[in-house]
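3.2 Worked example (two chains)
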Amino acid sequence: MNRFAYLTTGLAIRTLAGLSKARVHLHGTDRIPRGPGIFVINHFTRVETLFLPVHIYDLTRLPVWSLADESLFTDTLAPLFDKVGVVSTADPHRDRLVVKTLLTGEASWIIYPEGEMVKNKKIIEHGRFMIAYAGGSHPPHTGAAALALRTEFYRQRIARTRIDDPAEAERILAHFDIGADLDPATNQAVHLIPVNITYYPVRARENLLSRLAARIKNDMPERFIEELMTEGNMLLSGVDIDIRFGTPIDVRPHLQDPRIQADIRSPGPINLEMPLQSRARMRKAALRIMQNYMSAIYGMTTVNHDHLFAALLQLSPFRRVRSTDLRSRAFLAARTDWPGQGIAIHHSLADNQIHLLTDDRFGKFKDFCAILAARNGNPAAHDDRTRPLELVKDATLFGRGIDFHRSRIDNPIAIMANETEPLIPLRRRLRQLAWMPRWWIRRCVVRTLIQEEQNRFEADYQKFAVDGESHPPKVGRPFLLKGRRRDIGVVLIHGYMAAPMEMRELAEPLNGFGFPVYAPRLAGHGTSPADLGNRRFSEWIQAAENGYALINTLCRRVVVGGFSNGAGIALDLASRLPDTAGVVAIAPPLQLQDMSAKLVPAMDAWNRMMALVKLETARKPFVDNAPENPRINYHRNPISGVHQLERLMAAVQSRLPAITVPALIVQADQDPVVHPDGSKKVYDRLGSTDKTYVLVNFKRHGIIRGDGAIRVHRLVAGFLEQTACKRTTPSGDAATGPERPGQP
């Protein structure tokens, strides 16, 4: 190999990669052993044959050679391939070159055991590894294992003959054109390193490269057009490329068979082309090793949202699957501890998955539905709970009768599902979820959400509670009051420095009317002021979204309500979440009465700066608080918390025109904390045509508890009843009746 050409080609590939929007993530690089090795890798695109050698070289500092199909060695490409270390599979000296470079440590090798690109990702057939290709199917090749075995066979034979038969040792070295020095050929054992490459998302679309190629040549082969549409789109539109290196496989134990050892010790010359007496044993060993690295390669597939959606749809016993139902099943699948079961997941699955149950803000499900819409005409309509979108499985969706070379265009859903087949624990769990009745899925989602919130509170309380300052756990624990109604439910969000118990006096009468009610605990509340001082308003919103998802699972529609800071969060949810039926904002803190609140951002910045320079005595992180409800609220107010409250309301204020659902704003006319003018501004800026502003005669802030609070309770209950009577969708279509448990 021309080393200069190799390095300059690598530089060119890096330059092209810099222009690409693809994001490469390397995992398990610490597993790569020192010295030469054979990297066995799954083969899905042509681009990996370019960038993989560069990445492996960067990690090992050894040149990386690779085998390529003989059809690629045209008069134009053959000289380039020769210089950068690409060898034809039909080269008569191929095996000798591989063994030589591995013995001397000159280079590592990349070998694709499938033998060609597996565009449909179909590699399991009747429980066995079988590679599907354009003309049929075949078992994976054992060539990588056989070459590793022969390399170690000769390494051991050289080590033995250098003492017992130096002439034979010299002959072997000459046979491989190594030279007289024996040490390089006996230093380091070669390993097989399984590698998996997973791309996400994989979308075949027209792109700059495919359009440019079409202009250059009109009669371009269909196969080439498909590759440009798929791989060009991946490079230009952006794709995550997860490259995982598995545990190296040491082939030396497989050479301990007595017959193989007899060949290693046998007198007389043994060349690479000569059949060994132990060839049958070597073939069996190669087969076992191949099964080992194939399991390792495909066991490292990086599972993503597309995998969950596609496999759940494939495994579903129903021809029609409601989108809300599929998202709920995917949520439960995503909440499984896959890393604990040895299954790798895409980084987006490691984050909070509540978006699958609420607004799909990252477009995971929307993108999947777009593929279905292009594939079989499924509508990409708005998915509301009164008339849910249904996904339809047609006869060819998962697989039969699709041209192999068009599979990435015509059958992407099948490719996604096929990629999960080797992951047995994943498939078992997904099959279980796909067959569960819908009412049981809803129950599991609710139970999961409740348990997670309870566990989060218990962990925070144990970590942050302070004797003499924190209230008993029952004050801060989130609660659910189940009701008989399924048409509408309500989320009640407590205020700043308070806890879920603050909402119980309002929750119980509403529940008495049959409405299911959930009161979430906002992060930093119900524990201690020190906990609240380290929180961000985004964490408060996340807790409220969990509550929204819970009620959204129990009921067809959701009203979000809150008091004070909770009112601000309720308005935020109503501006973003599509299934919201109405919003109740009681004393939203858009404008605070205390003029010193204007100094909060400066005080918070001062405290953070003093913390950085470690001048604790100059900090003033808390101010004293005299709460109306001393058995619920904190007695110390963190400055940073007030700053987060103001940031929340500033963010909500700009989104008020986006709220178009029925709204109820309630405010005390003599509130000592929140100025009524602020609540009136909230009302005026709402985009709703159906909105109500009520000013009640109270001289306190906490109007949802204590004397006279029943007036507020009746206002909220009446609003819920009126909202429940509005049985039309945003588009004016009539709503459907209650869904029956177990209905497909």
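3.2.1 Second chain
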Amino acid sequence: MAEFIEPRPTPDVAFAAHPCVEVAFTNWPRQVVPINEVPFLIGRGSENGNHLALDDPRISRKCAVITAVPGGLQIEDRGQRSGIFVNGTQINRGKILCDGDRIRLGAEVECQLVFRSFSDLRASGEGQTRLDSLVGPRTGDSHFELNRLRMLLEATSLLHSQLPLELILATMLDHAITITHADRGMLLEPDASGVMQVRVARGRERTSLAPETVNPSRTVLRQAVEQRSVAINKDLRLADANLQAAQSVVLQYLRSAVVIPLYSVPCVDDAAHTPGHDELLGAVYLDSKREAAFSELDRQILDALGVQAASILDNARLMQHERERQRLEQELIIARKIQQALVPQGLQDFPYLEITGIHRPCYEVGGDYFDVFPAADGRTAILIADVAGKGLGAALLTTMLQGALSGMSLGADPVKVFDHLNRFLCDRATVGRHVTMFFGLIDPDGTLEFVRGGHPSPLLLRRGQVRELYTEGSFPIGLVEQAYYAASKIRLDPDDTLLLFTDGATEAADKDRNLFGYTALVDAFVQHANGSLDTLLSGILGTLERFSEGVRQTDDITLLLVRYRPSAQERNQTAMSGLKATS
């Protein structure tokens, strides 16, 4: 029968040991440099980026490099004069290093380094305290026990190492194989469907095995995961019938197996944590074709090793999530820059119009969009749009809209463009987005022709009074396939000012979730109307900010201000037209 051992809590690792190189130059003071990261560069002068800088004219600026490979750490020649020698043999390609290897740099015997797989660990002082914290007080001090405890310390010290994760996991397995006298060891992780898959596989003598060629016993794995504890099968011939009959056990002549399930370590202050519901991170699996015998110390070491391996995987998972978060954040920054570049910057004043505007997305990117551009017939186009939803999906659609609406600068009929966009989005209902939009064309004589698509009416300020351009409703674009869009016209008077806005302005909220509202927007518009457009925009935004008191908004805020300022000739023509109309 499988023997199950309840895991014991283990404190965080506080003792670190790293592979290192010892400078053994003749007449040089002893210097030990830890290999805290790879690639580890060796050469003359730190200004050349070398981690081990040797101030010796016999050493090339680019001398050697230590890199991580599946079998461990290897050294390569970067261009050292007369070459690099390991234990007296010149290397032509990378050479995997073993503990105690002597590395000669060039032809001079005096220029040597010694590779240490780990710095010295002693079971006294700090080391003794660390051992006791991992496995408890020991009953014997035999050389055999000390060597095994030393391996445990070396394995746990990898938790703080800056070496590549695959190398750390391979070394952890090597130590577990040595401790259990296993023939092979594997680290398994669950895939998206929860099935355990081999990530790293190792054999005896620190050899790498191809994960796809190994076949761990799924029955032994399942037993350990179900029991949520270390499973030790000393002799599979004495196990239960199901385990004895397992195909992988029979075909591979397995006689013993050890499985250490690895679970995430909950935070000490995690009040929401429920015991027994930790996330399964994977498992360390070891098997052998020989019977196994485990002392109490072996079991304690396996217990501690499992906790440390779980910590490594948990940290690696958190690091992966952090890297993914940083990648997404970087992509959103790029998307924001692109979107902001598409919004008109430093709006120019047209001969008969003053224009200013602002777009404030509530997230990195938003679904609001506005634009101002000259049309082919001499008129000026103004538009504002609001895509349903927020974030990256809405931003992608606004980019598509800009491309589609750019055709209006070539003289396309706005109504036909609205109809086309509506059919396009309705035919792609899986996109799940619709758009409210206002599009207008202003003639130098003040005629404003506009098309609306479910967007709030712009506000028209004329001689201190505010009114809406329209009060009747219309369908957003992409919501109803049979929607009908039509153009309307009004005549602007000199100094008339239009305020185009998205509902993020009227629905801005304070800390008590009160909304800014339509009336407050109208009041702010009137209150600051006597100044320039920049003063007017600043006044409206200032009123909004004082109301919200710094509360982060949940919708984009976009404002576009347009003031009609005809030339003297156009003013006279407008006045003459008015006289003819009254005569």
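3.3 Remarks
The chain has a mean pLDDT of 78.
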